[in-house]
Design a protein that fits this description.
The protein is α/β, with parallel strands linked by helices. It has a single domain, classed as 3-Layer(aba) Sandwich (Rossmann fold). It is about 50% helix and about 10% strand. It has 14 helices and eight strands. Strands 3-2-1-4-5-6-7-8 form an eight-stranded mixed sheet, sandwiched between helices. Strand 2, helix 3 and strand 3 form a beta-alpha-beta unit. The relative contact order is 0.14. It binds NADP nicotinamide-adenine-dinucleotide phosphate.
């Protein structure tokens, strides 16, 4: 017997297990071959990572893609790269800073004015484990960007999504929600000591609770909403964790880690699946682990918490006041609701010069 048999078989077994593990962790490619010509997709945080790859794949499938990003230089560069790779000219860069309610409102207004429809909204942007930063409006950065910003944006685009039904909203959540807790007494870390890990987990739990409450409120509208954990993906998400900078992690942990993580291209597959597949037609209020529907953590199934989070979020982003002032300022007599919205004025109008509209 050769002395090499044992080491070779050990190596073979380890290698085989690593391949199986990686296949299990990555979850493979979206099985749907759906083409989405004529559909408009809005994706937040699309200049890098999962968002950029999602934009590329959906552009490849013929969609009209609006990339909402805070850094216009990076966004323009990513949009240009995607147009070049896919030969789809309808990929547009548009400014959106989810850490600013003013920016979110301007972005939503632009979409409402310039786009005829929104078939898919992918709330993808995210920030993980940053220091105790605040948004322009004083919210904790992770809650503000990951949850409150997307909460406001989605609500502002709801009429457009309803007009375009059947339409879909996809919220990028995370497995991290399972250790999340919503602290209703101190959502923005103003009273207790800041814990950046817990702040991320709280924001990701908020994504799942928001998904479930929104699905309830959208029953019968033809707009579906689902949350997804994309798997563990090699992106820039860990930029604030310090792991990328340390010598130990890059030399010792990195090779091991790379066996477990997937590329941004594969990381985008769950979002693509939720956005285009026929299987997802009419499916709403669910949580997906990669491309498999799973029950989320018990605290994400708490209906009272979901309702309460909706109310608190509405108040924080100023939607409640708008609802109240609309009620306290009913249409003047003789002025119908229909003429208030005045769809006739927008009907037949072109969606506007898309190219100039989105800054190309
Ligand atoms: N990667 C994973 O393993 C993993 C696992 C579970 C869940 N997720 C979720 O997947 C989503 C995408 O993450 P990723 O891994 O692709 O991370 P990423 O590479 O860091 O990309 C995040 C994107 O969000 C954008 N963003 C951050 N703050 C923003 C703001 N204030 N306004 C607008 N855009 C903002 C970033 O823009 P800049 O480039 O300008 O910063 C970037 O485009 C996140 O919601 C994340 O929580 C990822």
């Amino acid at each position: 017997m050769s002395k090499y048999i044992l080491p070779v078989s050990v190596f073979g077994t380890v290698f085989g297990c690593a391949v199986l593990l990686k296949t299990h962790v990555t979850g493979g490619r979206c099985p749907s071959k759906a083409i989405i010509n004529g559909k408009t997709v809005v994706i937040t945080g699309a200049n890098t990572g999962i968002g950029k790859e999602t934009a590329r794949e959906l552009a490849q499938r013929g969609g009209r893609i609006i990339m909402g990003c805070r850094d216009m230089e990076k966004c323009e560069a990513a949009a240009k790269e995607i147009r070049g790779k896919t030969l789809n000219p309808h990929v547009y860069a548009c400014h959106l800073d989810l850490a600013s309610m003013k920016s979110i409102r301007e972005f939503a207004e632009r979409i409402k004015q310039e786009e005829q429809r929104v078939d898919v909204l992918i709330n993808n942007a995210g920030v993980m484990r940053c220091p105790a930063w605040k948004t322009d409006d004083g919210f904790d950065m992770q809650l503000g960007v990951n949850h409150l910003g997307h909460f406001l944006l989605t609500n502002l685009l709801l009429d457009k999504l309803k007009e375009s039904a059947p339409s879909r909203v996809i919220n990028l959540a995370s497995l991290a929600h399972i250790v999340g807790k919503i602290d209703f007494e101190d959502l923005n870390w103003e009273k207790k000591k800041f814990d950046t890990k817990q702040a991320y987990c709280q924001s990701k739990l908020a994504n799942v609770l928001f998904t479930r409450e929104l699905a309830k409120r959208l029953q019968g509208t033809g707009v579906t909403v689902n949350a997804v954990h994309p798997g563990v993906v090699a992106t820039e998400l860990g930029r604030h964790t310090g792991l990328h900078q340390s010598q130990f992690s890059s030399s010792v942990l990195s090779p091991f880690f790379s066996m477990l993580v997937k590329s941004p291209e594969l990381g985008a597959q769950p979002s693509v699946y939720l956005a285009v597949s026929k299987e997802m037609e009419g499916v709403t209020g669910m949580y997906y682990d990669v491309m498999t529907e799973k029950e989320p953590a018990p605290q994400a199934l708490d209906e009272e918490a979901a309702r309460r989070l909706w109310e608190v979020s509405s108040r924080l982003v100023g939607l409640e006041e708008e609802g109240q002032s609309a009620k306290s300022n009913p249409p003047a007599e003789g002025q119908s609701k229909a003429t208030q919205a005045d769809p006739a004025q927008t009907q037949g109008q072109s969606p506007g010069p898309a190219v100039s509209a989105v800054g190309l």
